[in-house]
Amino acid sequence: MARPEFPPTRDTHALVLDAFRTRFVREPEFVVRAPGRVNLIGEHTDYTGGLVLPFAIDRALHLAVAPRGDDRVYAFACDLAAEGEEVEFAVGDAATTGFGAYLSGAIAASLEQGEHPGGMDLVIASDIPVGSGLSSSAALCVAVAIAIDRLLGADFSALRCARRAHRAESHFVGTGCGILDPFAIALCGAGHALRIDCEDESTRSVPLPVAELSFVISHSGVSRELAGPAAGQGYRDRVAQCARGLEGIVASEPDAAPRSLRALSPDGLVRFAGQLDEVDFRRVRHVVGENARVDRVCRLLEAEPPIGLAAVGAEIRASHASLRDDYEVSIPQLDMLCEIADAQDGVYGSRLLGAGFGGCALHLVKPEAVDAVCDVLGARYRDRFGKDTEVFGVKAAAGAGIEAVE
Ligand code: GLA
After folding, report:
1. Which of 11, 42, 214, 392 has the maximum number of C-beta atoms within 10 A of its C-beta?
2. Average of per-residue pLDDT values in the chain
């Protein structure tokens, strides 16, 4: 079993450099690093204009880049298969296969704003597990958006890159996702979470008590891909149910209609219980409750003197219960991992991470309990499912940026 807080599975910066030199027999001009993200709380709220509280993690995608004199894009991904995978397309064409769709999507997002980056050679390597809810695909979109900015000679703007990466994945790849992932990856600071208001895109850095709190990730063993058919449909259904729920609320009180679900409090929502479809009502109840939980967790983390982490853990557990019961995006493996962890000494709380339907669970753990919690999670998972799963620690790292070629 993987140990907690182990270093990145390999030196991805060195790996992309080596692969670039071998592949293209020249030097890359620069390397972009784009981390994965963990969302502390605020799940399935971003596409309703809600609140989220993610942090960037110490696992990242690296992208080595050099401009070409023509309009072609050649890209090689070191680790999508043992022997790697490559795509080639012209700037402006839509690459439809595998990771190429994210590349051409990011390019399309800049072309539609009248900015033409020209051709480029790219090599990608990542130690963010794919399909795990840690945003490996958003990291790719952010990395390419940053690379394009640099190739265009623009002053670096993390916000512009985050917006373009979001446009790439949501519109051009077509997942319909919200801004949570690209904003977290581009804008987070080390040791901090970022409270993002997905209605007006304002952000606030929230300190994490990193000396008293460790983050452990456990994998359900079930991969999920938002761009894939099964999880993709489940995700799109939730987006549609929330939109329909809001429409129902607006229709029943046209004179005092809220502009978004964000304007509703858990108490204020109760009066709409009989007016909405039962499933839509539960979806909306999750979103409204989750927004309130994000605000409470921010207040707890920002309190002077700091308020106990037990209260943060209670909000994390409540988030999982709501995602499981009202939003119905959990699976038995994730419920089991959360239950096992929450029964251990030194665990503040656990919940599923990201979109759900598979992927990982997040556990908030006292630093001194991390080893024991990882051992128990690994052993109990193996007993129940007859195979190993990955359990590892993550730290709150800096958001995406450009690294010198070394
Ligand atoms: C995925 C999407 C995000 C967000 C989460 C759920 O990660 O990409 O935009 O909706 O699911 O919170």
Report:
1. 42
2. 92
Q: Which atom of ligand 1 approaches the CA of 355 most closely?
A: 11
pLDDT (average), residues 133-155: 94
Pick the CATH number of 5-205+399-403 from 3.30.230.10, 3.90.930.60, 1.20.120.1730, 3.40.50.720: 3.30.230.10
Residue whose C-alpha is closest to residue 77's, from 50, 112, 102: 102
List Cβ neighbours of 188 (8 Å cut-off, separation of 6 or more). 35, 37, 54, 55, 56, 194, 396, 397, 398, 399
Query: H helices within 329-369, ranges in order?
Result: 332-342
Mean pLDDT of all residues in 71-90: 85
Whether the bond into 4 is cis, omega within 30 of 0: no
Closest residue by Cα to atom 9, ligand 1, is 178
Q: Which residue owns the Cα nearest ligand 1 atom 1? A: 355
| CA-proximal residue: ligand 1, atom 2 (nearest) | 177
Residue 379, pLDDT above cutoff 70: yes
Q: Write the single-letter amino acid at 146.
A: I
pLDDT at residue number 263? 94
Structure confidence at residue 304 (pLDDT): 83
Q: Is the CB of 354 under 6 A from ligand 1?
A: yes
- Which pLDDT tens digit goes with each residue over 276-323? 999 999 999 999 999 999 999 999 999 987 678 999 999 999 999 999
Q: Whose CA is nearest to atom 8 of ligand 1?
A: 177
pLDDT value at 1 more than 60: no
* Residue positions annotated with a catalytic role: 181
232 Cα–ligand 1 center, Å: 11
Residue 148 token pair: 């394009």
Domains of the chain, residue spans: 5-205+399-403
Q: Cα(393) to centroid of ligand 1, in Å?
A: 21
- Dihedral, CA of residue 128, residue 397, residue 217 and residue 221, to nearest 10: -10
SS3 10: coil
How far, in Å, is the centroid of ligand 1 from the Cα of 345?
30
pLDDT single digits (tens) 13-62: 889 999 999 999 999 999 999 999 999 999 999 999 999 999 999 999 99
**Is there a contact between 34 and 60 (Cβ–Cβ < 8 Å)?**
yes
Q: Does the pLDDT at position 206 exceed 80?
A: yes
Q: Tokens representing 25?
A: 């027999």
Q: Residue 15 — φ and ψ, nearest 5°?
A: -65, -45
